[in-house]
Each structure stands twice: as C-alpha cells, then as structure tokens.
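Annotators were shown the component list below and the corresponding predicted structure, then asked to write short factual statements about the assembly.
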Amino acid sequence: MDGSSSTGSRRARRGGGGITLGDVARLAGVSPITASRALNTPGQVAPETLARVREAVARTGYVPNRLAGGLASARSRLVAAVVPTIAGPVFMEMVQSLTAALAESGYQLMLGQSGYTESREDALLEAIIGRRPDGVVLTGIMHSAEGRRRLLASGIPVVETWDLTPTPIDMLVGFSHVDAAAEVARHLHAKGRRRLALISADDERAQRRNRGFADEAVRLGLAADASGIPVELVPAPTTLGSGRIGLTRLLERVPEVDAVFCSSDMLALGVLTEAAARGIAVPSRLAVVGFGDLGFAADTEPALSTVRIDGTAIGRRAASFIVDRAEGRAVAQKVVDLGFRVVERGSS
Amino acid sequence: MDGSSSTGSRRARRGGGGITLGDVARLAGVSPITASRALNTPGQVAPETLARVREAVARTGYVPNRLAGGLASARSRLVAAVVPTIAGPVFMEMVQSLTAALAESGYQLMLGQSGYTESREDALLEAIIGRRPDGVVLTGIMHSAEGRRRLLASGIPVVETWDLTPTPIDMLVGFSHVDAAAEVARHLHAKGRRRLALISADDERAQRRNRGFADEAVRLGLAADASGIPVELVPAPTTLGSGRIGLTRLLERVPEVDAVFCSSDMLALGVLTEAAARGIAVPSRLAVVGFGDLGFAADTEPALSTVRIDGTAIGRRAASFIVDRAEGRAVAQKVVDLGFRVVERGSS
DNA sequence: ATGAAAGCGCTAACAT
DNA sequence: ATGTTAGCGCTTTCAT
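Structure shown to annotators:
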C-alpha cells in the first residue's frame, strides 16, 4: 500500500510526488551528484554515464527544480525588471528584448510595476529581494533614497536604464534626455521655426527634457528666458487624446506657435490628429516632433519626426550586464551611453 | 577571525552572509519556527513575542528568502504568464492588471514570450515548470499537444485566456471570437453597408474571427459564400503601416468596398490614415471597425468603432482563479466568458 | 570520473 | 503559544 518502501515512503509526507534528481539518478544507476553534473556540466561526466542519465531524464520527464537549485547554489537565474507601468508602449520594446536576451542565457524575467508613485515601491522591493534575483533592471524609477540603499545593501547587481544619472546605484545603460531635447530644439531652429512650444507628460524625465529644450531655445535666441517657451502639461501616461487636448489648449494660449515638441509619439499623433481636424497644415504651418520612434511613427500622415531610442539595444545591454555579472565575468565599464537619434520625417 | 563561533562559522562556507530567519529568531530570543509564524501567521503568536520578532526584523533589515520558503512549503508564490509578444499593445492591459492583482495577493509575475511560432515553446515550458510556479496564465498559444500534455502532467493550475476553446487544459477566461466578429457584421449590415471586407493579421485567432465575420455576412445575404468577402492578410503583429498597405491593396482589388473590419485597432488606425490621405470619407464612403478598443480608439478622427475586450477584467479574473486555487479555495466554475462589446463610434 | 556528507533557509508535522 | 525534528531538492566541499 505504501509503494516503494525504501525511499518512497519518506516522500509521502510532503512535497508530493514530483520526480526528483534522486529518482533520475537511481534509474541511471549513479549518485545524485553525478546526475546533477550530467545536466549542468556534462563535460565532467563520462560519455556513457551521460547517456544513461539523459535516457533516465527522457523516460521520467524530469524537470529540475530551480527553486532548490537556486537555494543550494545561491544563483536563482531570475532577473527582476521594474517598470512604471507595462501598459505604456514606451518600455515594451525594452522589456521584450530583455526577456528574449535573458531567456537565451537561461534566465527568466520577473516583472514588477512600480506605478508612477513611490507608494508601492517598498513592497515591490521586498518582493523582489525576497526572490534573491541575480539582477534587477530598473527603468526610471527608484525615487526613494531608502529604496536605493536597500538595493545596494542586498548586494544584487542593479542596472538602471533609460537615463544617465550622475550617481548610478551600480550599472547604467541609457542616454541623455537633456541632450536629446536640445538637439530637437536645434533641429527645429534649423528648419526656420521661431515659436517653439512643448506638450509634455508630467513625469520627471519628460520634464527634464523640457528644461533641456527650453534652455537650448533660449541659447538660440528664441526666447528671453526658459519661461518664454510655452509648456502644456498632460498627465502620464500619455495618450492620443491628451495630445489633442494639449494642442487645443496650446493654440488658445499661443496661436502663433509654429513648432511643438511632444514628450511621446502618442502625444504627437494626437497633435497631428487635432491639427488635421482643425485644418492646420503640418508641417508648413506647424512642425511636430515626437519622442520614442514607436512602430507607427514612420507611417503617420505626414510621417512623424521623432527621437529614436533603441529600446532593443537597451534591453540587450542590460541583459548582458547582468548575465556577465552573474557568471562572474568582469564587466569592463559599468556605464553605457546608447545615445539617441533625431529622425527627420515629414512632420517637421 | 572566524566571527561568532557557535553558528557563524558554519555559514561562512556558502551562501555568503545574508541575514536569515535564524538570526532574527536569535535576536528575538525565540526559535526559528516562532519567528516564521510571527511573520506568516501573526495570529498564532503572543503579542509580546510578535513585537520582539518585528523589532528584530526591523533592526536587521531581514528579507525572507522566498526560494527557501517555496522549496519548503511547495508554494512558490510565483505565477508565470506566457504571451506571444509583450510588444503588441493588445495584451498589455491584461498583463498590467494581472501583475497588479497578483502583487496584491503577494504573488509575483514571471513573464515568458512564446513568439508567434511554436519553436521555443518547449524551452519556455521547461523554464516555467522548473520554477514550480503556483499557476500559469496562457494567452492564446500552446499549440503543441505535447506542451499541453506536459503542463497537465506538471499539475500546475493553468488559466487559458482570450479565447473560449471547447477543450480547455484547466481553467479558462475569454470570449467568443466568432460571435464578436458576427456581431460586427450585423452592425455593419444594419448601417446599410453591403460590400464588406476584412483586413486582418495572419494569426489563427484573427482568422477565426474572419471566418465568423464572413459566415455571418453570407447569412445576411451579403455574399453567395464566404469567399465572396474579400480578405487582405497582413503579418502579425499588426502596425499602422500594414493597415495603410492593407487598404491600398484592398481598394485595388475591390474599389466598391464600403466597410472594413480590421483585426486590430492599430490596423484600423492605418486604414483611417490611408483613407484620409486618399480623400476617402469615413464613414460616409467607407465604414471602419477595429478590434480591441485600445486607448487611442475613442480619440481618432473620426472616433473609431471597435470591439471592446476588457483586458483588465481578464487579467483580474485569471489572477483570482490562480490565487484561489493556490490558497486551496474551491473554484466554483472553471470557465468564464467575459464577452465583448461592439462600441459604435464615428467611423461606422 | 564519481561519490559521501553537509547544508542552502525555510516550513510541515508532531510534540508539549 | 512555542519548540523539536526532519526534511523540501538541489549543489558545494572534500574525498577517492
């Protein structure tokens, strides 16, 4: 009634039935540790032994328990990614490439949403650290000094992305928001625009771009001071609708505006839509520039000028940073500036 | 040199220094299991003991190791979600709500991308099962019978979403693609449209909608048979650009078309864009209906009629299915049809 | 190339 | 209400 007496009986208590490495080893006629080596470091095992273990794995359908492996080896092969929200298209490209790159190296992604506030940040951090991930990829957030301290104290490799902070927690892959915005200002100036304006999300990063844009505009002699560049703020995350509203409000205040820099492509698409609805010609009467170069930007009418951020490259870089660190490889540089590119299309 | 002799020395070997439940217990002057109870089932612990343990946790900055906890209790508090790609906006809303709902119950999301092919499906499955998640949420995929068999054999609760298959692996929350498409056909017919057409992604689910649409059109007397409803296929994932191309091709073949049902809102936005560029009036000359009711649909010009799928509800339902199962609560019904809603706006 | 022993950090059982 | 004991399934260390 109790099945196999020698070892089966002792398993009956907990855990429940799954096939373990021990079962595989017994079937192959080797010790558990040899079976383990056959799976993890096949080079250390005699070919004939290897074959027997593999045969046993195939027969049983054994799938190694990574929880146990992670506990024993202190390597979970889990990487946590924190995004403000997955439901904005901006970070998707990065998360996609991060997931793919990690999977290729045998790592799995854990996703956490911080929201745009720092309220749940602490609980999220606890949940993450509790899993003992081999790395954490941060996108933009981690406002609280306390959170940064805890992460640092945990000893987990951290990659911050989408930005170039002067004082990174650990590793960093991003670009300069200020420089990007300044280059857009120069681009519009070169195109003969003189009445620049901003339609922007109210998050910190976008506002940093706004400052870069306004400062450069002042430098170009387009305003006496930064307050001379009108800004319409809309709540994050941005939508097509908020772009339409933004333009409507902007035109009420500053009818003579001849160029708008939007903090996202969605916002810019809203501006294009509203401009078309009002019969405002783009780009002849109004130039529009977006940010992100999302999939649709090249195909709008007119095609949207924007700032291209290579989210795929960011994700790939972040993955390799963490995998390198986890495998004990030396990381040559801890900070990578992936830059950006102002893509000129029909809308400007 | 060796630090604390009694227990410290034995930790020096592996693991490396983290604070453990044992440390907390010692500091609080209780046994490890009492400390464990103080954290997990505080009701079972005397208030004064509880306070001492909490104090010790605060002093040490202890964060429980969930790998160890999961191994011991056979409950990982990890849930795996599989999506074709995170980089399509369609599933984002669901993933977002799934992540949030799970986090609320103390569960964490692991993300896996299957791609639109079934090549990596097996490796992904192995990675997932290896983590012993408390549940798996599937979106659309799991083509291979072998994969379904392995999942079933693993004993992990499974929720399939976005569809209503007749033979679910386990639990299911979705809606009928065929019914949704049929209702769109009726809607267009009611609006006086007689020359219907489809612009659609080439994935299985979209094509199922196509069949539902065409069959209903035939039933309404709009064509002799399903092949009388023209279809333009574009590759998944869909983009604004492919919508423009789709309409262009469609008009070449069938200039007299007066209504298009698109398999996604992005596609529909492309159709609106191309129509505007060609001076084709929407809806008077051409009606357009999308699918998904993404964030921008209500704000396009004209506003986009579409099929609303409540991704948030799907995610929440899937989460509660899995959490209920994990906590041992009885699940009343294993299949939930969340339905859909045809949202009539300006474009039709 | 293989194995024995000892634990990783935690919790389920079974006391008391 | 608290403690003791025995693992969860794997891998490290140290032998052979």
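Statements collected:
1. Residues 1-13 of chain B have pLDDT under 50 and may be disordered.
2. Chain B touches chain A through 62 residues (CB under 8 Å).
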